[in-house]
Amino acid sequence: MKTISSFGFGSSGYSYEDARIVVFGAPFDATASYRPGARFAPRAIRSELFGLEPYSPYQDKDIDDVEIYDCGDLGLPYGNANEALRLIEAHIDSLIEDNKLPLMLGGEHLVSLGAVRALANKHDDLRIVQLDAHMDLLYDYLGEKLSHTTVMRRAWEIVGDGRIFQFGIRSGKRQEFEFAKKHTQVQRFNLDGLDKAVESLRSFPVYLTIDLDVLDPSIFPGTGTPEAGGVTFQELLDSVLCLAGANVVGCDMVELAPAYDASGVSTSVACKVLRELVLAL
Fold first, then answer.
1. Which of 45, 156, 159, 211 is most buried per CB count within 10 Å?
2. DSSP label of 225
3. What is the domain count for the chain?
4. What is the CATH number of the domain that holds 223?
């Protein structure tokens, strides 16, 4: 798979062959319903990572000790969601075949669908844990079935009832909330109950998707669709550490749109979440 702009995650020096976790970027935001710009997130994260200490005092671990490899950004065709998802799915298929744990940097949330498709082909009993401000359960958006607003509906069509666990949700259309009552498991407004969900999922493969707009916009304004009333960084960190107890077979972090935070703080927050996620895995 052709990739661009790899920089070598951290200074670990691990090769692809030796790595257990493989990071790659999916710079795609062609279905953004409000403010585009998430396609620039992987590049911004790589740039800002150089200013972040590799050591985590939260976990007493160092990123330099992690067997991780960054293979750069996928070359995705802007404006062609079907082809972009096909390329993401194919790339993750190759990572699975090589026994790697894929960690994808979006990009808008639709990119998660390519990962779910690939991992569901490998794991019949796949579960999804979604940390997000938004339901993303619309059947279509302005007639389009492939959108960051529909990604969890498309994922549900793959994994089925009761297998998507949604936390931090505080925005969506009425029909999305009604759909969720019947088909997904939802925790509104906060991340309470995640520990119990993780305990119930210990025997299942889990795909973790972190939409960074789950954070309150006072902490993370650099996103395409900010929603007031979000969680704190510490709450998100605690959840990431909790999820270390699950059988995570793949994960992503999406919806940083760096241009909407001129201070650069949102990108720095994303980098710190990424560090803690890698160390927790």
1. 211
2. S
3. 1
4. 3.40.800.10
Q: What percent of the chain has pLDDT over 70?
A: 95
Q: Domain residues for 249?
A: 3-280
Alpha helices in the chain (DSSP H): 41-49, 81-97, 111-122, 151-159, 174-183, 194-200, 233-243, 265-280
Query: Angle 258-275-23 (CA atoms, 0-180°, nearest 5)?
Result: 80
Edge-to-edge strand order for the sheet containing 3-4?
A: 3-4, 68-74, 21-26, 101-106, 247-254, 205-211, 127-131, 164-169, 185-188
pLDDT tens digit string along 199-215?
999 999 999 999 999 99
CA quadruple 184, 136, 250, 230: dihedral, nearest 10: -90
* Cα dihedral 27, 80, 153, 24 in deg (nearest 10): -20
**Each residue of 151-208: pLDDT tens digit?**
999 999 999 999 999 999 999 999 999 999 999 999 999 999 999 999 999 999 999 9
Q: Is 0.90 surpassed by the pTM of this model?
A: yes
Contact status, residue 253 vs residue 212, Cβ threshold 8 Å: yes
CA pair distance 60, 132, nearest whole angstrom: 27
